[in-house]
Design a protein that fits this description.
This protein is of the alpha+beta class and 179 residues long. It has 6 helices and 4 strands. The protein has helices spanning 15-22, 43-50, 78-81, 83-92, 96-99, 163-178; strands spanning 26-31, 36-42, 67-72, 124-127. It has a 4-stranded antiparallel β-sheet. Strand 1 (26-31) and strand 2 form a beta hairpin.
Length: 179
């Protein structure tokens, strides 16, 4: 879906806002360079490193990790855990008959009681980007059990990074997409 982000309250979707509201919570993170889980980390360490490389968690060699926060919030209903963001996102989504949990054309919401219903979310996939490691995706190719709407709500350029190298990597991606 394009242009959904333009309808969102941008102040709700920044790393600073998430850090303020959820920084004291713990969650598993994934190091995208290795695919290994970094268990039970304070989310403040993730959010503070989102746009500042010097504040990122480091691996055993002292290298800042390329992290993602996967399927978050884990084990909790997004609508209950982050009610303001849930309302903001639901108000911005088009085709509400399909995209809302109780939408009349949302077939997953209409499954009979004897079926195991999929988690209708939303769930967030939040990851650091790095133009120097274009081969390291933050989400592997996969098949979802139900349809999904993906919305990019925030993009940040980290401080303390090699901007020239980062931009060079980004330009090569643009060239590949255009070709």
């Amino acid at each position: 879906m394009s242009n959904v982000g333009k309808k969102l309250n941008r102040d709700l979707w920044t790393p600073e806002a998430f850090n303020k509201d959820c920084g004291d919570k713990k969650n598993d993170l994934v190091n995208c360079m290795t695919g290994k889980t970094v268990p039970s980390q304070l989310l403040s360490s993730f959010w503070e490193g989102f746009e500042d490389v010097s504040k990122r968690l480091k691996d055993n060699d002292g290298v800042p990790m390329l992290l993602k926060l996967k399927d978050w919030p884990a084990g909790e209903d997004f609508a209950t855990f982050l009610p303001d963001r849930f309302k903001d996102l639901m108000s911005a989504l088009p085709l509400k008959e399909f995209t809302h949990r109780a939408g009349r054309l949302n077939l997953a919401a209409r499954l009979p009681e004897n079926f195991i219903k999929p988690d209708l979310g939303p769930k967030m996939y939040i990851a650091y980007g790095d133009g120097n490691h274009l081969e390291k995706g933050t989400t592997n190719l996969h098949l979802d059990i139900s349809d999904a709407v993906n919305v990019m709500v925030h993009v940040g350029v980290p401080k303390n990074c090699d901007v020239e190298s980062h931009n060079k990597g980004s330009q090569s991606v643009d060239k590949k997409l255009i070709a």
